[in-house]
Write a sequence for this structure.
């Protein structure tokens, strides 16, 4: 495929599969396009799955400094990517940070949104979840090999994802980190951690206003039943402000649902019917 290069010169990794209504998949803070592997398999033949690894993640280029690792720049990259593809409009699946990107798009380019699915993310973040993210983001893993990495992931997340097989834990470890004979490394630019800590020093923006800007956009919300980032209260407030918003809670999932669960697929298909 022709490479996609941002206006500031970064080559971003992407993948396009299938035909039909376009689903533009935007991953979370430290994740990349491979977080939509399950969705791509489950929705094969039903939609066109377009996946983008944001700057500094996965196989995408790293920025020279940390300053451009922000949701406004990332949303700008998304619009440039859509222009590059000649994609006038798409339904966005925003996983975690990708949901914030979708909210920025609602403010800056609402005409490009056919619909939005927010995957375990909302205008308010639970303190426990954000504290946990701030503790690990940008720090190299302590695990020295794959076995230690998987054991650590299961210790941290096993209670929130109680039905994952051993094979699935290994698959996720290899997806979320760079695992080799030399050891275990981050799969993203550590400067993303620096950006997060610098941005945390300022006043937190009111994202409810951005959420409200999606008033005329078909909208859906997924919440992991065990999520430590999207609270039950925040989800209820979102539903009160958008009574027409599709909603599902995914059992045996924390942050984030993998998007191959029956509840996830059902809501994605219903959202596509509205677009």
């Amino acid at each position: 495929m022709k490479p996609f290069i941002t206006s500031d010169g970064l080559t971003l990794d992407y993948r396009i599969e299938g035909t039909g209504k376009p689903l533009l998949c935007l991953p979370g803070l430290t994740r990349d396009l491979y977080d939509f592997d399950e969705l791509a398999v489950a929705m094969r033949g039903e939609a066109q799955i377009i996946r983008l690894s944001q700057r500094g993640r996965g196989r995408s280029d790293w920025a020279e400094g940390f300053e451009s690792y922000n949701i406004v720049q990332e949303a700008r990259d998304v619009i440039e990517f859509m222009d590059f593809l000649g994609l006038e409009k798409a339904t966005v699946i925003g996983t975690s940070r990708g949901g914030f990107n979708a909210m920025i798009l609602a403010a800056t380019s609402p005409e490009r949104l056919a619909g939005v699915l927010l995957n375990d993310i909302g205008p308010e973040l639970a303190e426990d979840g954000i504290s946990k993210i701030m503790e690990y983001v940008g720090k190299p893993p302590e695990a020295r090999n794959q076995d230690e990495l998987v054991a650590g992931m299961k210790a941290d997340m096993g209670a929130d994802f109680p039905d994952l097989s051993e094979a699935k834990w290994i698959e996720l470890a290899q997806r979320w980190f760079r695992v080799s004979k030399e050891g275990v490394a981050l799969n993203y630019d550590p400067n993303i951690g620096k950006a997060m800590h610098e941005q945390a020093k300022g006043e937190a923006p009111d994202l409810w206003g951005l959420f409200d800007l999606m008033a005329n956009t078909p909208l859906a919300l997924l919440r992991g039943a065990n999520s430590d980032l999207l609270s039950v209260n925040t989800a209820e407030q979102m539903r009160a402000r958008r009574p027409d918003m599709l909603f599902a809670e995914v059992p045996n999932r924390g942050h984030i649902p993998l998007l191959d669960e029956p509840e996830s697929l059902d809501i994605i298909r219903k959202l596509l019917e509205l677009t």
Notes: The mean pLDDT is 97. The longest helix spans residues 71-85. The radius of gyration is 18 Å. The chain has ten helices and eleven strands.
